[in-house]
Amino acid sequence: MVTSPAHERSTTHDVTNQAPPLAPYDACEDTALLEGLRREGAGWAEENIRRLGFRAGSTEAQDWGDQANRHEPVLRTHDRYGNRVDEVEFHPSWHHLMRVAVAEGLAGAPWADDRPGAHVVRTAGGLVWGHTEAGHGCPTSMTYAAVPALRRQPELAKVYEPLLTGREYDPVLRVPTEKRGLLAGMGMTEKQGGSDVRTNTTAATPTAEPGVYTLRGHKWFTSAPMCDVFLVLAQAPGGLSCFLVPRVLPDGSRNTFRIQRLKDKLGNRSNASSEPEFDGTVAWLVGPEGQGVKTIIEMVNCTRLDCVMSSATLMRKTLIEAGHHARHRSAFGARLLEQPLMRNVLADLALESEAATTLTLRLAGAADRAVRGDAGESAFRRIATAVGKYWVTKRGPAFTAEALECLGGNGYVEESGMPRHYREAPLLSIWEGSGNVNALDVLRALSRESGARDALFAELALAQGADARLDAAVTRLKGRLSEASETGARRLVEQMALTLQASLLVRHAPAPVADAFCATRLGGDWGHAFGTLPDGADLDAILERALPGGV
């Protein structure tokens, strides 16, 4: 038998025409993000955001994200002796990600920072650190959002806020006041009602101690069950109310928080989502009885902004992956990035990504200024956050699918990371109110909240006269508002979102970006899929701005 030398036998496995690993890369190499950071009053943090972006793109941090999703959390209901413990075990990579996120101020830290722009800094940090993975953003988001709700009960806020706003990650369950830092979760939805929280059946019974209740019921979606405290909705004698539920009571004993199971989710698999059962669970009233929704709504406004942020982050991350592949992969005699149709696809994705990032940072700026007492920004935030939550999160799945397709078969295998991003994308439209809930919330804001409509059109007026297509869109929008209905709510909110994004790009982006966005999203010179920009679009300028390293 004739054998060939080892080097000849291996020649069929020579690797050519494959992209090298993306990491290490700089997740902060994003012109639209850095411009937005400065524009929204947080330029003082640019050096820190750049540092965090470089760390997010490091081989180590990217590996943390991969490992945290490959090794999913495991529920332990009992210890070896049969004692009920209700603990969730995470892979060490999860703890690495959480430790960095908390230390970098991506949880509750902005509430303890008086500098203008502090909340914008947190959002910008999320836009870059989110390049690692999305699941651990859930507990940091809820912790951030819990602080303004907890302030409705000053005596509780005095105890817990300094720990919720700290920068130390302490994952061990013990008495909250004995820890260096706390994480907060929330438990609102139940299986019979979902977003219709007024149908909740969890009962809150007052005890002899003022402000202290016991809860009995079953929550349907409570993510990050290893948090230290939770804001929970339950039916008190005076109606639906908000309560603070600690996992560990002041005397060191475990509060009754029986985790029935962890959800087997489409994506977001690094993060545990649970069904806890309350039975004699000790809770403290937050805000007046009967005002649970009013108390917790500020928390929802914060987490909705984080859904917009996370969708924008997924867009940016998958665009970078697609651009990296196209830069290094060749087909039919040329690099993919040099081929006109691929350039059209990538440029179209770049427009969508920049519009999402720019809107995210504008919303963060509004939130920051609203916290500091700006009534106009508060009104704008109220309506624009719901608009952004509806639209940007809706665009996420289609965007990630197109970016994945840029990698072809390479993008369809788990090793590329693209399937994980694709599975993550639909979540952000579902959590914190699905599309219908947010669309109807926009109608509610228009009809019930004084100043919301005026604040939106005051924002749009800042770009008046700069683009005829935008001016026409604003006129159409005013006409549609006069005949707004529940049936047409999605179409109305879509038009509001596109008009708002266009106005921001007309004011702040280079002319090729703004012109292409207005021509397609407002002017109708567009197909029904990404990659259908008109022949006149300046693809070179758009891609030069969007892709790290240029084109």
UniProtKB/TrEMBL annotation:
Top-rank taxon: Bacteria
Acyl-CoA oxidase/dehydrogenase middle domain segment(s): 186-279
Domain Adaptive response protein AidB N-terminal: 17-171
Residue ranges with Basic and acidic residues bias: 1-12
GO MF annotations, alphabetized: acyl-CoA dehydrogenase activity
Cofactor: FAD
Keywords: FAD, Flavoprotein, Oxidoreductase
One Pfam family of this chain: Acyl-CoA_dh_M
Region (Disordered): 1-24
Domain Acyl-CoA dehydrogenase/oxidase C-terminal, chain residue ranges per copy: 290-446
InterPro entries in alphabetical order: Acyl-CoA_dehydrogenase-like (IPR052904), Acyl-CoA_DH_CS (IPR006089), Acyl-CoA_Oxase/DH_mid-dom (IPR006091), AcylCo_DH-like_C (IPR036250), AcylCo_DH/oxidase_C (IPR009075), AcylCoA_DH/oxidase_NM_dom_sf (IPR009100), AidB_N (IPR041504)
Family according to the record: Belongs to the acyl-CoA dehydrogenase family.
Record's protein name: DNA alkylation response protein
Native organism taxonomy: Bacteria, Bacillati, Actinomycetota, Actinomycetes, Kitasatosporales
